[in-house]
Specification:
The complex is a heterodimer. By secondary structure, chain A is mainly beta. Chain A is about 0% helix and about 50% strand. Chain B is an all-beta fold. Classes of the chains: A mainly beta, B mainly beta. At the A-B interface, strand 5 and strand 10 of A face strand 5, strand 9 and strand 10 of B.
Amino acid sequence: DIQMTQSPSTLSASVGDRVTITCRASQSITNRLAWYQQKPGKAPKLLIYMASTLESGVPSRFSGSGSGTEFTLTISSLQPDDFATYYCQQYNSYSPYTFGQGTKLEIK
Amino acid sequence: QVQLQESGPGLVRPSQTLSLTCTVSGGSISNVSYYWSWIRQPAGKGLQFIGRIYTSGSTDYNPSLKSRVTISVDTSKNQLSLRLSSVTAADTAVYYCARVRNLGVVIGWLDPWGQGTLVTVSS
């Protein structure tokens, strides 16, 4: 399996802050990476696919970058609705699809 | 827009078989642009991909669960199903179904997801 490692596991930030979450793959996955946002008691919601393509309807303050083994999700100016847990997922190889362990974004 | 809804028993006895159904509305499960999948999440933990199925019935399973998992599709009912046999407490989780985008050379991001259903394995 391709292992996905996110950092940090927990991130404390304030409204208006710029935050970055990193996801590293155990081998190259080219740009086949998605990011999801999950709020308590809810299903994950797709934010970004193909590493940097913003899903329709997702605010432009969210952006993704990277290729190969290192990827980032950036929120340019945190809004109250953004406090949630974020997951990355690789789909370069169905061996099987794997997710990062999650990054919990908390209010400072 | 497409919506997915999981259904099934919330309590399963150890060693029995977990059976869930996902009903797809607002779109056809036979659409060749998509696969369909199951994912699970134990309480307070991360996401584990269980497997995926194409409209043809072709399946791919997580090797860690492969010996116990069966995913099927019923195109007449626009539903996909999950069966997980010989369950233990470790199989207690929220189970989600999700649509998987299929671009041919690229298959893999998940959208949308169902709301999830909690399955508890306990005697």
